[in-house]
Amino acid sequence: MRGYNRVILVGNLTRDPELRYTPKGTAVARIGLAVNRSWRDPETNETKEEVTFIDVDAWGKQAEVIAQYMKKGRPLLVEGRLKQDSWEDKNTKEKRHKMGVVLESFQFLSDGQGRSGETGAGDSGFDSGGSSGTKPSYSARPPASSNAGGSGSQVMPPEEDDVPF
What DSSP string describes 76-99? Predict the structure, then answer.
């Protein structure tokens, strides 16, 4: 049986994107996303809230666009897949694990104050696929009719040793 790994998140950036490049020149941006969840406690009728903090890695042109137009506090919709990183702690020699998200597409969102972080995004080389008045979305997946290449082609993350974080 084949698994299914798909994540859709809407949250606010917890810090400015960190843009770096692999030794081979591939852009990678690491962003922190805070996702809020609210619910009403049935016993106390009190509104409760929890925040989940998620690290997201974006690759290629998408990494550069996010780093250029997004800042701490701005909202972002992210679509991607879960990825578990494993490493050995240098001090304790213990095996460590961390779950994160690899971004496959994203959409700038309005922050409720008329700002969306998309100023000038029309020059990014991505086709938003929408009509005027809609927020652009960006995908690393190639169009169904495309063979290869083009500005929307998928950038595969390099091996772990090449990641500059």
Answer: EEEEEEEEEEEEE-TTT--EEEEE
Total tally of structural domains belonging to the chain: 1
Helix (H, G, I), strand (E, B) or coil at 146: coil
CA proximity to 105, closest of 145, 65, 68: 65
Model pLDDT for residues 127-156, shown as the tens digit of each residue: 333 333 445 555 554 333 333 333 333 455
CATH number where 13 lies: 2.40.50.140
d(CA 109, CA 121): 12
CA 84 to chain centre: 15
Decide if 2 is inside a domain.
no
Q: What is the dihedral of CA 42, 43, 46, 48, to 10 degrees?
A: -70
Residue range(s) defining the domain that contains residue 74: 7-162
Residue 1 lies in a domain: no
18 touches 32 (CB < 8 A)? no
Q: Give 50-76 pLDDT, tens digit per residue.
A: 999 999 999 999 999 999 999 999 999
Full-model pTM:
0.70
Is 133 a domain residue?
Answer: yes
